[in-house]
Amino acid sequence: MESLGQKLRETREQHNFSIEQVARDTHISKQYLEALEQENFSVIPGETYIIGFLRNYAEYLSLNPEELVVLYKNIQIQEQPLPMTELLERSPKSSSRIIVLLVIILAVLGAGYLIYRIVISSERQEAPRAAADQEVSQPAVQQPEGEELLFQEEAVTRWFDLDDTIGFPLNGNIYRLQIVDIDRTLTIKVPGGTLDMPIGQDRQLDVNGDGRNDLRILLNDLDATDVAKRANLSLYKITKATVPEVAEAGEIEEAVESAVSEPIAAEPSAGATTIISSDTPEPFRVSISFRGYCLFRYLVDNDIRKERFFHKGESFSLDARNEIQLWISNAGVVRLMVAGREIEVGRPGAVTTKQIRWSRDDAGGQYALEVVTRE
């Protein structure tokens, strides 16, 4: 029977993924990925993180996360000591004592079961009379406790269930955010209060109260139809290299809109990537696929415009005569193919815009299909 670690390793190798590539895409440490493949679970700090990493790794490899979690739990059960085996392996001198002990245990269990049946029978007879006197209230169903994600990477995008907790390390302390309600909006308990967010909203938080924003949260999607409600969030650490703290979500959106809406120059752009050259402009195709969750906007030939959230595993193609403009909220999860050539999009969590268009070199008279990147 194929083991858990063997299944992970062989599936990764079938996809031609290196451990380093998986670590970059999933934001799981290479050390922990190797521990999962070697079934060396003691390296990972706690079962909550083991199951969380295992589910994320399984989704990345297009495996069934629940099947792998069951495999892991079976491994843990098999590693438990077997008291009965230990008893049977004792010396012959103690065999008679063991038999006596087993007989006593069986007798106690039999007596306990008999008492239990008598009590249950008595309660069933009393139940109709008690129901006539007062209405019996049903106990509330207790929700299972959520998992905790320790957010140590620069950016991560994943699904969170109701009651899940996000641990955010900052200056030696860990600040916790908890998913407390999922309906038409998401409610998160944050240090100092609660945060209500509709789908698509981008918020920045000052988690330690020092007047400086530390964490950016983007709500990508909500799934409130199933019994196990969940929310898809993108989390980004705010550093000096990210969006300035004084910028609000509306200002970020306005800046992106401005970048997307700027007119394309007729001459070739400095720093642009040339895909093909031709005597005359020809229709071209752009293919996009997603390895994670991403807010994606496109404008084709200044006519066809669309924006929506795309999920892991989705893909589509765009055909254009002259130009395509793209706005991408999470560049690291997007694979972009222009006229059959793969183009580097950006790092996870980065917001970028790309213009793919024909330009003309007046000196040579040639046309070039080029990709212009605007961060």
Short description:
By secondary structure, this protein is of the alpha+beta class. It has helices at 4-14, 19-26, 30-38, 47-60, 65-78, 83-88, 95-133, 249-261, and strands at residues 148-150, 155-161, 165-170, 173-182, 186-190, 193-197, 202-205, 215-223, 230-237, 273-278, 284-290, 294-300, 304-310, 315-320, 323-328, 334-338, 341-343, 352-360, 367-374. It has three domains: 1-101, Orthogonal Bundle (434 Repressor (Amino-terminal Domain)); 144-243, Tick-borne Encephalitis virus Glycoprotein, domain 1 (Sandwich); 253-374, no CATH class.
What are its keywords?
single chain; 8 helices; 3 domains; five-stranded mixed β-sheet; 434 Repressor (Amino-terminal Domain); Tick-borne Encephalitis virus Glycoprotein, domain 1; alpha+beta; six-stranded antiparallel β-sheet
Overall structural class, as computed from helix and strand content, comes to alpha+beta
Count of separate structural domains: 3
Q: In DSSP terms, counting alpha (H) and pi (I) runs of 4 or more, how many helices?
A: 8
Separation of the first and last Cα atoms = 49 Å
Which bin fits the share of residues in helices?
25-40%
Give the overall silhouette. elongated
Q: Count every beta strand, where a strand is a DSSP E run of 2 or more residues.
A: 19
Task: List the uncertain runs.
Answer: 130-144, 240-266
Strand order of the largest sheet: 10-19-18-15-12-13
Could you characterize what this model shows?
The protein is α+β, with helices and mostly antiparallel strands. The protein has 8 helices and 19 strands. Strands 10-19-18-15-12-13 form a 6-stranded antiparallel sheet, covered by helices on one side. Strands 1-3-4-5-6 form a 5-stranded mixed sheet. Strand 3 (165-170) and strand 4 form a beta hairpin. The longest helix has 39 residues, at 95-133.
